Amino acid sequence: MAKDDQTNMDDSAEEMLWRQVAGQLERANRLVSARARLLEEENATFARQLRELGVEAAANSATARELPPPALEPLPGDSESRQRLSSAEADLLAELSRDEPVFCLVASTTRVDTGRWLSGSTLWLGALATELLLFAAGTRAFCERIPFSYLRRSLYNHVTGELVLAPARDLTICKAELAPSEAYQLLAQIYSDSEEDED
C-alpha cells in the first residue's frame, strides 16, 4: 500500500510540475505576443511621425514586401476550402458575408466554444473585398465581421504559429492558429488596400 501511495504522490508531483511549466510557457507566450503588438504600434507611430517630417516611411513596408499578391478573383462555389465547410458552416458563411464575394477562406486549428459538449468548433477566417470574417458554427454560433482598416497592424507570429489581429482591441478573438501560407494570404488581403487608407 505504501508503494502505491508513493507512486501516486510521484505522479501527482510530476503532474503539478507539468502544469507549472505549461503555465509559465503560456505566460511567456502572452508576454511575447503583447510585446510584438506593442512594437508594431510603436513602429506605426514612428512611421507616421517621419511622414509628418517629410520622410518617406511606411509602417508595414517590410511586411507588405514579404506577402504574396492578394487574391483578386472570388473563390468559386466548388473550391476546396468551400467543400470543407459543413452545411451549418456554409449557411453561416452565406449569412455573414451577405453573399458578397469571398476571396480567401481558411480553417484554423483554433477551437471556439459554441455550446458543443465535447469540443469547440473550428474557427474559420474569410476575406471579403474590404472585411475579414471570423466564424464558427454551433448551438451558439460565433460570428465577427471586421473592416480591414481596423486590422492594419496584424502580423504572423512564427513562434506560436498564430495570425495576430491588431490593433482591434474589442475583438472577441484576436488570434488564430494557421499555417504560414494561409496566414500570409489573409495578411495580403488585409493589407491590399492599405495605401488607400493612408492617402
Task: Supply database-style keywords.
19% strand, 6 helices, PH-domain like, 7 strands, three-stranded antiparallel sheet, 199 residues, alpha+beta, four-stranded antiparallel sheet
Helices, strands, pairings?
Elements: H1 2-52, H2 61-66, H3 80-83, H4 87-97, E1 104-112, E2 121-127, E3 131-136, E4 142-147, E5 155-157, E6 162-164, E7 175-177, H5 180-190, H6 194-198
Antiparallel strand pairs: 1-2, 2-3, 3-4, 5-6, 6-7
Strand ordering within the main sheet: 1-2-3-4
Question: What is the C-alpha radius of gyration, as a whole number of Å?
Answer: 21 Å
Helix content: 40-55%
CATH superfamily of the largest domain: Pleckstrin-homology domain (PH domain)/Phosphotyrosine-binding domain (PTB)
Count up the domains.
2
Number of discrete helical segments: 6
What CATH first level of the largest domain would be assigned? Mainly Beta
Report the principal-axis shape: flat
Calculate the terminal CA-CA distance, rounded to whole Å: 76 Å
Counted beta strands? 7
CATH overall fold name of the largest domain: PH-domain like
Rounded average pLDDT: 83
Per DSSP, what share of the residues sits in E-state strands of 2 or more residues? 15-25%
Q: SSE order, as H and E? A: HHHHEEEEEEEHH
- Extract low-pLDDT stretches: none
Structural class: alpha+beta
Do you know the CATH architecture of the largest domain? Roll
